[in-house]
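name: query_chain
kind: protein
chains: 1
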Amino acid sequence: MIVALVALFIAATGFAVGAIPGRDGVIHACYKKKGGALRVVAAGKKCPRGTRALSWNQRGLAGANGPKGATGVQGVGGAKGEAGTAVAYARVAADGTLEPGDNGKQNKNVVAGNVEHDATTGAGHYCFGGLPFGVASAMVSPDSAGDINGNVGASVAVQRGITLGSCDAQHQQARVTTLVAGLPADHRFQIWFEATGGPQIAPGVGGD
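structure:
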């Protein structure tokens, strides 16, 4: 910037002698008349009588902001997520029947014949079989909509080659146990199934 200003001054005035920066990086020079020679002086020194000071020591003003760029093209929307993996679910009453509420929308791919609950299974035990898919996993939750008993629990076991005790041969896909105050007792629950994509493992075939 300094060199450019010196060149500009020389071109405009016709001065033939240039000036160089001092140690502080600022040009200090004196001139007597237009077209005359420049005399370099040390920083902080005054020009001799009869001459005028010439120096460049100020930063130029910042330029104006450029115009705003055009708005970018909107990105492409992401792919739609896959549907949930719960292939079936059911809301089962304490007596083992399916809850008919909400016009049957509380049950999917589970019918009455898929649930066994009688004297054979015993209190708090519900067996599932005949489902049109192999069960990969299941989740169960006690449903206390009809009571305020908070001391209720539920668990589910899925067939993996080991016979589900208290369940007959036709209901060996999963077994739910409901507990009230820590003891097996009949209670309403909700259950969700995820399918394997293949047949259920039969008892005695191995597994866990």
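note: The CA atoms of residues 64 and 70 lie 18 Å apart.
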